[in-house]
From TrEMBL:
EC supergroup of this enzyme: hydrolase
Protein name, entry field: Acylphosphatase
EC number: 3.6.1.7
The species this protein was found in: Spirochaeta isovalerica
Family as reported in the entry's similarity comment: Belongs to the acylphosphatase family.
Keyword set includes Hydrolase: yes
Length: 91
């Protein structure tokens, strides 16, 4: 089953390599989507893929790389789009 969602990650998540770690993690799991920095200091990730890989990634977002300090993740499940393409950093 394909799962899809969007997460807003808050805490010390910019300037610590979060986006590129998120990119590498998502690609290693075969997910599609994107990750980007937001003006308010948060990071947004839009992602979809097989249920187990999706859940693994969502769990990873709650900690991120060792250089990050995640304080909160807002998550909303979405309908799969099937046109997100290879996971990438969005600017």
């Amino acid at each position: 089953m394909i799962k899809s969602g969007i997460a807003i990650v808050r805490g010390r998540v910019q300037g610590v390599g979060f986006r590129y770690s998120a990119l590498n993690k998502a690609r290693s799991l075969g997910l599609r989507g994107w990750v980007r920095n937001e003006m308010d200091g948060s990071v947004t990730a839009r992602f979809e893929g097989d249920e187990q890989d999706f859940l693994t990634y969502l769990e990873w977002l709650h900690t991120g790389p060792s250089s990050a300090s995640v304080s909160h993740v807002d998550f909303r499940e979405l309908n799969p789009e099937n046109d997100l393409g290879q996971f990438q950093v969005s600017f």
